[in-house]
Amino acid sequence: MKRERLTQIVLVIVGLLDLAMIYFLYMDLRHSSWLLVKQNECDPMFLSFFIPVGVFLLMAARRPSEHRSMIALAAWWNISHGTVMAIQTVEAWYHGVHRNFTDVILFLVIGGVMLALLPAKREAVAPVVA
Predict the structure, then answer these.
(1) Closest Cα to residue 9, out of 81, 122, 82, 113?
(2) Sequential DSSP letters for 70-102
(3) CA-CA distance, 53 to 19, in Å (whole number)?
(4) What pLDDT does residue 42 have?
(5) What contacts 89, CB < 8 A, 6 or more positions away?
(6) What percent of the chain is predicted at pLDDT more than 90?
(7) Residues 6 or more apart whose Cβ sits within 8 Å of residue 108
């Protein structure tokens, strides 16, 4: 029972963090900073991925064992995102651009914790034959 409660807490925290990205998305779109400052149209699209993931993680927090696939998807999404960011960070350093590894570590840790807390597969119940 403690493991399920810990899973619920982690899902709520990660879900709220993902959902909080709506603020940064709003600011990017409102001030057109994605176009005028960053000159990168990928930022708002990228930020928009966090918001539905956050919503679904919050929904999964109620009964994690029933939402195993969603939790696994979010965990692997964080791990793959952290891996790509790690490659980008190494490339940036190679080209003389200093970039911090903090966000890389954060995404990898979030993904790893979510995988570690992934609820066990439920056993299929065979139908009773009369």
Answers:
(1) 113
(2) HHHHHHHHHHHHHHHHHHHHHHHHHTT----SH
(3) 8
(4) 79
(5) 99, 100, 101, 104
(6) 71
(7) 78, 79, 82, 83, 86
Question: pLDDT tens digits for 32-45?
Answer: 887 888 777 777 88
Could you tell me the pTM of the whole model? 0.83
Half-sphere exposure of 106 (CA within 13 A, CB side): 7
Q: Cβ–Cβ contacts within 10 Å for residue 21, how many?
A: 17
State pLDDT tens for residues 43-79. 788 889 999 999 999 999 999 999 999 999 999 999 9
Q: Running DSSP on this structure, what letter comes out for residue 127?
A: P
| N-terminal to C-terminal alpha carbon distance within the chain | 35
